[in-house]
Write a structure and sequence with these properties.
The chain has about 110 residues and is α+β, with helices and mostly antiparallel strands. It contains 4 helices and 4 strands, in the order αβααβαββ. It has a single domain, classed as Translation Initiation Factor IF3, CATH 3.30.110.
Length: about 110
């Protein structure tokens, strides 16, 4: 399997990405943070972002939800919605959620 950075292939996918309002939806089985923070170029052009966030770590080396949300806020995004994805079957505690974010207006 070949792994490529989104910043390296976005030009092939979108003509002139710097002039677009991009909606980036991620579902990378525990690697969302690495994808988000590895896309420094395209992230600056992203208007909407949807990503899975772990409330309780279900994947190895997944950062706590508050670190993810802090990094996204520092990157210029505000949360517009949180949607439950999975819960512990016994305790019903939240395990992960989809987070919808929008680029903060200046």
């Amino acid at each position: 399997m070949t792994i490529k950075r989104l910043d390296d292939v976005i030009g092939e996918l979108i003509n002139m990405p710097e002039k677009k309002k991009i909606f980036l939806k991620l579902d990378t089985q525990g690697y969302d943070n690495q994808v988000i923070f590895g896309t420094k170029d395209i992230l600056t052009h992203t208007h909407l972002l949807q990503t899975e966030v772990s409330y309780k770590s279900i994947y190895e080396n997944t950062p706590p939800f508050y670190e993810t949300l802090k990094q996204l806020s520092t990157s210029g995004f505000n949360v517009t919605g949180i949607f439950s994805l999975s819960r512990d079957k016994t305790s019903m505690e939240l395990l992960e959620f989809d987070c919808l974010l929008i680029r903060a207006s200046n």
